[in-house]
Amino acid sequence: MEGTLNALVVLANYVVIPATAYGAQLALGALGVTLVFGILRFSNFAHGDSMAFGAAVTILTVWALQAAGVSIYPLPTALLALPVGIAATAVLMILTDRAVYRFYRRQKANPIILVIVSIGVMFIMNGLVRFVIGTEDIRFDDGARFIVDVRGFKAATGLAEGLAIRSAQVTTLVTAVAFVAALFWFLNRTRTGKSMRAFSDNEDLALLSGIDPERVVAVTWIITAALATTAGVLYGLDKSFWPTTYFQLLLPIFAAAVVGGLGSPLGAIAGGFLVAFSEVAVTYAFRRAAGHVMPEAWMPEGLVQLLSTDYKFAVSFMILVVVLLFRPTGLFRGTAS
Amino acid sequence: MSRVRLRTPVLFLLVAALIVVTGLAQSWNVALTIVNMGLVSAIVALGLNMQWGYAGLFNIGVMGFLALGGLAVVLVAVPPVAEAWAAGGPRTLAGLALAVAALAGAILLRRRMRPGVARGLATAAVIVLGYVLARAVFVPASEAIERVNPAGTGFLGGLGLPVLVAWPLGGVIAAGAAWLIARVALGLRADYLAIATLGIAEIIVAILKHEDWLTRGVKNVVGIPRPVPYEVDLLSDPAFVARAHLWGTDPVTAASILVKLAYAALFLVVLAILLWMAEKALNSPWGRMMRAIRDNETAAEAMGKDVTRRHLQIFVLGAAVCGIAGAMMTTLDGQLTPGAYQPLRFTFLVWVMVVVGGSGSNWGAVLGGFLIWWLWVMVEPIGAWLLGVVTMPLPASSALKLHLLGSAQHMRLITMGLILLLVLRFAPRGLIPER
Questions:
Q1: Contacts of B339 (CB under 8 A, 6+ apart)
Q2: Which of A146, B208, B244, B376 has its CA 20 to 30 A from that of A1?
């Protein structure tokens, strides 16, 4: 019995908790991608760098607040700085839309042209982030480190294995849940949210019923900025801020959005967790957990790890390919066909 | 009409002038380095232009094909490491063969059995069993290889053949990978193909980075044999030194320029052959068919064209050209550094080249390759100079000034993005539009 408990604790510590936090970050990112796809109808390759931009501005604000002696310990200062990051990103995105995307929208350009345009935007944002904050690895989590730490857990339960819950992980989850709840309330209950959904379902019909497309688009960019910045900051709090990683997040984020069905917000969340749990579970070495439940003689020799962590991209890629081959509309039937 | 015909040579002359000015202002060594990478970039752009320009296939996995070309150079040119082969060479290959066999078995099962739960279970069982078996064979052998003198070798090495053999082989390997990708991902919506190719490229580079038995991973393979003479050998040749003095140049500079010229000649031959073939193909009935498919798939299909097969064909051809270029790039560097493959530089920059040059135009791709590469190299010094001028009024110790000057290198990305957006907006057909 105790062996099973120990095994469960190991699994919770190394798989469930990290994957939940990572899944929440991916879900927020995928929501942004899916929203842009649903309303503006193109895959936004600049999304990863929007996340980096939002996080960079937030970090600058954190530094300013720290210099001014402001602190909300045990919570990280970044939560206080988040609105500034969101506002800056929203302004940048609306300006980008005015200067770049709007022209092609009015032309009713082929979506693939918009994808290439978003690559141009990606270059600029990437350069901007590096220009503003450099290319170094930055840790900016100044909150309390742990909510549950290994030693305390062991003392409290008497188990051999410890459990650690970092506050960044809890912050991630709570913030993500709050954001998603707010987003769904907005989409389902408010007039603007309903007009956005109407626009996503059928553009012509929405225009006929008097919905202002520019307003819908502007609101979409603001929400996307909020989602991207929050996702970027939470990821940075949980791991660290390094501009290059945000580009690499593009693949799991797109995988999550596609798995859930591009254009479906609920799908994006499910996809985020699916990708995160698969990625962590496939690259986790189960040897230690297995050791608690299996007799010594049965233990396999290796680490009982399906794939080395070096290939975690491959996991989201595999999920993507399987979904595209067998159910191209995604689990939740998005707007893309 | 004559204005259009004049446009291409004039634009090429302008780019040549830019390079000559660089040579005069900086040094001929720098100018020739730009020319060499410009030649390689032109070939990559030619390959991507086949996929995107002729056929409208959205491939953002160029980096992966370039990396495979680089791998080909290691596999061909590096001398074999006998000790490593003895330690686990055959067993590693056997493990890989097992994995391939399992995959083939699973595909066969899918084709032979009737759809249903039984088929799904059987396929999954074959894959899982094959994977476990292959790993059991493969892992100890690859680890044994990596233990053989890890500081010096720790990998299998190559075949020890002349490096030029690697160029076509790089094309073949990239084409093979492209065929596999195309079987899975072609026929998807354009942006799904994009995401799929992006993922494949990341995986290929991850393999190069982490499979030490194959490529030494991030420890890099250095000192790959060259197709041209070494500077040191030239300098130790009295006849060469005497001739350099006769020309009135410093022998060290002369040797380095001569080596670069030799590379340039080799690259030029490859570019000329590929460009000639691409022009012939594009202006043949086949090329017209490709463009017809690109412009209206439904109509082309109604005319009896096999769209899927043609897409497969052009995707593989374009990837092969990228693979050749990748092999040339690694040959030029003389080393394989898997850590250096970055998507912005090796995929998206090529996109800028193709779009700026003119999608669908071969000469445009070549021009874009040279022009954008020149800019990529020169933006940094130009940006540094510009920031120096802008920050002139600030005191020398100002933190802002130091930060701005230190960030000059990031001007590159911003400039490339701006150029891409400006061209897409104001000259969407590029500098040399498709005819």
A1: B209, B218, B220
A2: A146
Helix (H, G, I), strand (E, B) or coil at B6: helix
Please, which residues 44-83 of chain A have a Cβ atom closer than 8 Å to chain B?
45
pLDDT (tens digit per residue) in B108-154: 888 888 888 888 888 889 988 998 888 888 888 888 888 888 887 87
* pLDDT, tens only, B397-416: 777 777 777 777 788 899 99
Per CB-CB distance under 8 Å, the chain B contacts of A46 are none
Report pTM: 0.92
Q: Does A123 touch chain B (CB under 8 A)?
A: yes
Is residue A115 within 8 angstroms of chain B, CB to CB? yes
Domain range holding B216? 2-80+157-426
CB B40 within 8 A of CB B324: no
| Residue A305 forms contact with B (CB below 8 Å) | no
Report how many domains make up chain B: 2
| Cβ-Cβ contacts under 8 Å, A131 against chain B | 407, 410-411, 414
- At residue B2, does pLDDT exceed 70? no
Domains (range + CATH), chain A: 2-246 (1.10.3470)
DSSP one-letter string for A182-218: HHHHHHHHSHHHHHHHHHHH-HHHHHHTT--HHHHHH
Same domain (yes/no): B149, B173: no
CB A183 within 8 A of CB A219: no
Q: What is each CA distance from B246 to A241, B238, B239, in whole angstroms? A: 58, 12, 10
Chain A positions in Cβ-Cβ contact with residue B203 (cut-off 8 Å): 311, 313-314, 317
- Is 80 exceeded by the pLDDT of residue A337? no
CB contact under 8 A, A311 and B210: yes
How many Å separate Cα A187 from the centre of its chain? 19
On whether both B64 and B90 belong to a single domain, the answer is: no
A311: closest CA of chain B, how far (Å) = 7
Does B343 sit within 8 Å of A255, measured CB to CB?
A: no
Which of A119, A313, A328 minimises the CB distance to B420? A119
Q: Are residues B114 and B232 in the same domain?
A: no
Range A114-140 burial, b when 16+ CB lie within 10 A, else e: bbbbbbbbbbbbbbbbbbbbeeeebeb
Are β-strands A146-148 and A165-166 bridged in parallel, bridged antiparallel, or unpaired? antiparallel
Beta-bridged to residue B336, according to DSSP, are B221
R_g of chain A, CA atoms, integer Å:
21
Its ipTM equals: 0.91
Euclidean distance between the first and the last CA atom of chain A, given in angstroms as a whole number: 49
Compute the distance between CA of residue B240 and CA of residue B254 in angstroms, rounded to an integer.
9
A105 vs B: CB within 8 A: no
